[in-house]
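Form 7-S
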Amino acid sequence: KQWYQRRVAITAGRYDHHQRSFTGTMSSLTDGKLPFDTKLSSAGLVYLHFGRSVLDQLIPEVSDDHKEIIYSRIYEYFMEEIDAVDNGINATEEKPKYHVTTTLGGRVRDLNPPWNETKQDFDGQFERAVAMVGEELVKRVNGMANVWLPALKIVKAAFEKRLDVDSSGQIVKFEQGGCPWKEHLYKLESGADCEGSVKYVVYGDSNGSWRVQAVGVKGEGFASRLPLPEAWRGVRDQELSDLIAIPDCIFVHASGFIGGNKTEEGAMTMAKQALKLANL
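Output:
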């Protein structure tokens, strides 16, 4: 059986977060080693105490240092949401602009038997919820260990060559797109004391064309550090090439966060011209 189908005996009350006096967070219960201030639910408490053991079972080949990175990241990008929802903590203080109904919690909620069903199988639906959440957790862990972490080497090499790509240091080029680069780039910039310096990433896509993508503002959703010029946005193909005097253009997204060109040279020229137009 999968690890998440096994039964674990938990001392009654030890992982109950409903007491009035309980205010524990990952930060407070690890002496600040993990910088997460969301109040823990019972799920977070179990993860705090057993998460590392689960990682030892799922990814035994990964080094302890990398497991610690994954342990923190799994909390930040998987468990913290569960804790927040269970404790009634909104993701934002602003009024949401639209409904988000396909979250993990929403999908678990949808497994509850209908209120008007004659024979409600709570135990059976609970088992389905356990399997679904367990499968998703395993997928996240494997993705971080086998996809996200290996990308660091690629991003680091490209970041270190950025001055060879453009003397401004504001363009990073990947020979092949698809690797998760954003968080690695933010961390590399921080380590090099040049946070916010890279404006565009240029990379090849699976169709043989090239993309120029504006680097996002860390922690601000869809906002970009320097979107592609407003006059380019929403324009395509030859019309775009004529407009900006760069051949082989494919498109620029209406928001300016990404554009395409048939050639590497064309994509690089788009990025450099965008910097020039912004006086950078």
